[in-house]
Amino acid sequence: MTVREGARPPRLRPGDRVAVVAPSGPVAPERLDAGLDILRGWDLDPVLAAHVRTGHEELTYLAAPDEHRARDLQDAWCDPAVAAVFAARGGYGAQRMVDLLDWAAIRAAPPKPLIGFSDVTVLHEAFALRAGMATLHGPAVAGEVFLKDEPTRDHLRRTLFTPEDPAVLTLAPGTARTLIPGRAHGVTFGGCLALLASEAGTPDARPPAAGGLLLLEDVGEPPYAIDRALTQLLRSGTLTGVAGVLLGSWARCGPYERVRAVLTERLGGLGVPMVEEFGFGHGDSALTLPLGVPATLDADTCTLTFETPPLT
Fold this sequence. Notes:
alpha/beta, 2 domains, eight-stranded mixed sheet
């Protein structure tokens, strides 16, 4: 099955109301407040979903009970007054609530930017496969990198307000590196490796991703766990027909030489262009990468060029 281009949402404009939801783990109040201040500094009007600060009495690794987190996301998405939906953080929990969403209602609502990464990979995949929406693999509002790193904030802001501006993504010489040379064209998809692998057997299991440009990154997974997740994707057929691979950060995954050895051994057999350390994910600085958008990967020059702006 060919990876399909998603419906692109409108760009943001000064004064837009945006919603902040917590679909996964609990949010540190001081970080949340700091992130909201940054959005206000962009001349946005951020509003918190009802259960972002409530917590879960028993399962303290969740921001709120599943039905509450699902309701928050759905209400934000279906509210015509809300122009975009930001995830406050990742963590764990999106898989628990994704089947509680009313997907017919989500498909009926106009597209809008959905921004997040890590555990939000589950939502990126669900919005792509169930609703046909393009989304943004970008930093979380209460995340450490968003709060401390100006280039991370600036790239997200430009993507949201002037999406035609960062049409060609490249890094400083010597940062991203070619693993397998060549050029590949396709529609972007992917995110956090562990979450993509854990989707196997669910309604959002990705069918063979023919023609897709695969984005992969992760955090805190030792090399053998990276091997296991990649093997799961290979054995399930998910990576059959992938056109190219773009690898991001692998923070706290062990010595990078060992991580690279696993990545090249497991993915090299695909025989497609592949670039490493492209600067998205859980690293100290993170690009915002559109998902569900056609692009060309030039592995020789380590550039990713988008055919159309990710937002209209």
